[in-house]
Hints:
By secondary structure, the chain is mainly beta. A hairpin with a 4-residue loop joins strand 5 and strand 6. Strands 1, 2, 3, 4, 5, 6, 7 and 8 form an 8-stranded mixed β-sheet that branches.
Amino acid sequence: MLLEIITPDKTIYSGEVxxxxxxxxxxxxxxxxxxxxxxxxxxxxxIKIQESDKKNQYFDIDGGVLEVLHNKxxxxxx
Length: 78
């Protein structure tokens, strides 16, 4: 699935991933391939990305909004 993480200043990540773990307002949750469409508010914490080669990357955010639609995950982060 395609993941884009966008801040007010720039796009900090864009690429194909296997898994995204995000800090929701009520705790961590994960998005996998073929996830149902959803919109969620994000809290302060780390975004964990697992890329196709099983390599993990982490990004700190102070909150934001998530949209999942048609195997595309869009994160508007602060």
